[in-house]
Amino acid sequence: MHGCEFRTAGIILIATLLFGCDKQPPPDTKRVVRPVKSFVVEQAGSSDIRSFPARIDAGRKADLSFRVAGKVTRLSVKEGDYVEKGQLIATLDITDYRIAFNNRKANFDKAKKDYARAQELVKKGHISKMDYDRLEAEFKSANSALESAQQELNYTKLTAPFKGIIAKRHIENFEEIQAKQVILDLQDITTLEVKFDVPESQLRELQPDRESPEARRNQIPVSVSFSDLPGKSYPLTFREVSTKADAKTQTFEVTYTMPQVDDVTILPGMSATAIVDLSGFLNKSQRHLVPATAIVGAGDLEPRAWVIDQQSMTVKSRKVKIGRLLGSRIEILEGLKPGERIVTAGTPFLLEDMEVRLLPEREQAEPRTRDLKDQ
């Protein structure tokens, strides 16, 4: 009797367990979809246009001043006037300098006569060698004094050292001025300088291996554009690069030149944009530039990128060969193709074949086609 009861209880217990399992809530099978930021790999060279704020300067410039002091009696130019090389543009009152010249001329004439007489007398032994040497020295001193007076008289006239435009006039007629006081700024704008500052990382980028700096500059096109001249750009020619960085900005000043254009007047002081086209060089190596945050390390210590399958919206890691770090970007030499989308933020949380969703467009990584001031 008791055995039957135990068998019945066991059957009931097993049935309870079986039916009880069926009544448990099903496990949560909801997929984890990871939000990520991404970047579309561009054709090699397509994102290699660099732009920098630039400033225009005169090809040649001079601060004009008199080498002697005096009163300005003539100042025949004003700001904006064009002058020719050798043109007289200002004069000083010559009264005092003329008097000084005449006095020294008289002293010179006397010393010249005394010296000529001494040459005859010394031959005949009528004067001592000491007296002869004294008269010779007086003649040479008088000659030097006369030349100095002539120079000072000449310095009362100011002429243009080259053809150019008067950029600034610092004084007015009839003012008393000091020697070497700047009175005019002269600029030659037939050739213009375009100056811009390049960050250290960009300066390195302009210096590819196995190529001389001169060869590099000859092959990299650089042009300049102006905001008030949309759709127009003008080619530049390399002049020089500073080898000392600015202490505050740690940038290097690069100088290019351009001829004055015919359709519009470009003046020193104007702002512009310098455009450096590196695509020609970069296409040779078929490299791509991607955000450095897209590259992660793996257990095998190989650099990898998470590539998004844009049909299934899942990710797979892929080995890549990296090159130089250029500011916030890194070179990809092998492993990625143009048009592929890679993850740039959220990589620590990714697993193979994990489904992802792209963050809104405004939060995506931007192509590198503009200013690189972040480097």
Question: How does this model look, in words?
Answer:
By secondary structure, this protein is an alpha+beta fold. It has helices at 2-22, 95-124, 129-154, 200-205, 213-219, 279-285; strands spanning 33-40, 49-65, 70-75, 82-83, 88-92, 157-159, 164-169, 176-177, 182-199, 222-225, 233-235, 237-241, 251-259, 271-277, 288-291, 295-297, 303-309, 314-319, 321-326, 329-334, 341-345, 355-358. Strands 2, 4, 7, 9, 10, 11, 12, 13 and 14 form a nine-stranded antiparallel β-sheet that branches. Strands 1, 16, 17, 18, 21 and 22 form a six-stranded mixed β-sheet that branches. Helix 2 runs antiparallel to helix 3. The longest helix is centred in the N-terminal third of the chain and has 30 residues, at 95-124. The protein is elongated, with a radius of gyration of 41 Å.
Present the secondary structure layout.
Layout: H1 2-22, E1 33-40, E2 49-65, E3 70-75, E4 82-83, E5 88-92, H2 95-124, H3 129-154, E6 157-159, E7 164-169, E8 176-177, E9 182-199, H4 200-205, H5 213-219, E10 222-225, E11 233-235, E12 237-241, E13 251-259, E14 271-277, H6 279-285, E15 288-291, E16 295-297, E17 303-309, E18 314-319, E19 321-326, E20 329-334, E21 341-345, E22 355-358
Parallel strand pairs: 1-22
Antiparallel strand pairs: 1-21, 2-9, 2-14, 3-5, 3-8, 4-7, 5-6, 7-9, 9-13, 10-11, 10-14, 12-13, 15-20, 16-17, 17-18, 17-21, 19-20
